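Consider the following assembly input.
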Amino acid sequence: MGNITLYGFDFSLYTGRVRSYFIKAGLSYSERATSSRHFWKNVLPACSGKMTLPTIETESGDVIRDGAAIIDHYEEKGGHQFSPVAPKQRLLSLLFDVVGAEGLLRPAMHYRWGFPEENHAFLHLHFAAVMPKRSDSDALAEAQMQKMRVACQSFGAVPETAHLVEALYLELLDKLNAHFRVYPYLFGGKPSIGDFGMIAPMYAHLGRDPKPLSLMQQRAPHVFRWVERMNRPEADAWEFESNDETYLVDDTIPDTLIEVIKQIAIDFVPETKAASLCVNEWLRDQPEHTEVPSGVGNGVGVSTFKVRDTTITAVVQPYRFFLLQRVHEFFDSLNATDKGEVEVMLRACNMHEVLNLRIDREIGRRHNLEVLL
Amino acid sequence: MNKITLYGFAISLYTGRARSYLIKAGLPHSEIPATSAHFFQNVLPVAGPRTSYPTIETEEGEVIRDGAAIIEHYEAKSGRQFLPSTPKQKILSLLFDVIGAEGLLRPAMHYRWDYPEENQAFLKYHFECLLPADAEGGESTDDAMQRMRNACQAFGAVPDTFDVVEGLYMELLEKLAAHFTVSPYLFGGRPSIGDFGMIGPFFAHLGRDPKPLSLMQKNAYPLFRWVERMNRADADIGEFDCREESYLLHDEIPITLIDLLKQLAIDFIPETEAAAGCINRWLGQNADLQSETPILRGVGQCEFALRGKTICALAQPYRFYLLKRVQDAFNTLAESHQDEVRRLLEQCDMLAVLDITIDRGIVRRNNREVWQ
């Protein structure tokens, strides 16, 4: 049996999530750039022509586009080994997956693009490395970077919001640092779907670009260690007394985690609320199987919401609700007692509203695309 | 099958070499500190008895102390999968192993300990994890760190030599970046014993401590990628056109590697010569040393001149234990291959490594390196 081929980039946010999953699940893979003829001829057509990272070819040659679908594929094969079974942990794990994929793009983009003195040369080399090898590849790289820089502003990281974005991120780092001081992973001694979601922004951007990496190392060494740990095949939890590679017993949700989620809720809830209105308006007139726009800067409109007296305007991407719908599905499947417990917990985290932030139609997958059902 | 237990530490230079090897060789392992009752009762007594990182317990429960011995164990088992078989690549691979283990301690220590503003909090966190703050009668974290800082000055990075150490290191970064721009590993598409040696100083210290890491990211991005790559199970060579996960054909040694070795030779050769002199004098004075006496980390300070400064550095017999492997491998080569290797080393200003020896051999007995 061959290896999995992972089409990804080292500086790609969503590649980091799948890479970490493969490493932790002990799956052999080779990471490749998308520049090969094989990719264009055989892989891209199987993704309906949509090129996003990560995309994989499985051991048997099947093509899967998108990080969530890739992880789903192997989770199903592996008996959902990275999904806690206890209701509160399971629900939060799914919620962290949404937060990681969609809820931390502002700091991820701000700390990548807002510090050219520290980051520019580093980023340039990354972009140049994936450009066609031509005499003008430096110029191509600069043009592509400029495009990304502008597109990234659409997530709401602009000079007027920089102060807020930084304040929220530093508070989040402190909360995460307090959690990872006591626990190796979000839910104890074993990574979960939520950890993989969160590693996406916390690795390639916030834990690898020079400026935010040195910030993390100096301000939040426990978070830095979690990032390192998430890219190691073993549990890598030497600082902790317990060697149990399991989730916390009795569906325990530590206070440190409640604090993390409370912090995240500060902008996640108002943004999700504003975005749900925008998406609902958009999808009203869309025919069945309309592809939902995704990728940097592509959305179905913009939403405006207020956080601590600062107005943020951000692109609206239905994908957030594709992932959030999994949280809802799981919640709906619970019995009344468990539902009650989950609600109490979410209320303590200021996150209870997300249970009701639903869009009017379901998003599914067809031909390797996310589409309206 | 049981996993390998790797007794190691995130900030330990030599742990980085064994960890990278285990990852690349696909050997499942768990890394834990050497603080458990099990370690003291079962591992330490058969590890020298000496607590040093890295030490492992193999899948079968065998205890092996020291990075070189750990790698040798798995290399012997696997038919030397990470040693190039062609003469020039093989000799250079073994030479890089010596340089990684012994030849870059000055920059590794300098960039860790002499930038407290950037590094102190990060290092303190690591030390605190190993030294519980409430340990009664124990050393405080600050004291332990100060002790390490002082000890590390013995490798020759002191205020008077900072400019030489940094000058050489910045040049070295440039040479390494140039090489890893054209080649994913030292000898092509596959890591070698030499890569594992070199990752020692370039991971835990120079590629992970905040100050030198940001220096590397800024000045030597391709080197940063190599460091990243060396800790990944896959070849991680997506940015290269060549997808061959093998050593360069026809025993090729790229010009970038020759430039790199020339740079390394600038202090490696005078230091090795001075250290051999120091150790040989010491051996002369200790001629009655019993066979199988464990070697000391250092037997004195040797002095050598470097760009107008005098460097005073610990003379470590272990350097010659590793160097002997280079010389032994050279001696087994056919004459024509020896000539080729000699010409290559001459080009790299490294010819002297074939002849610098100490007067008494070093072997391993009961997990210690001992005088023969």
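The beta strands of chain B are 4-7, 29-32, 55-57, 63-65, 301-306, 309-314, 362-365, 368-371. Ask yourself how this observation constrains the way the partners meet.
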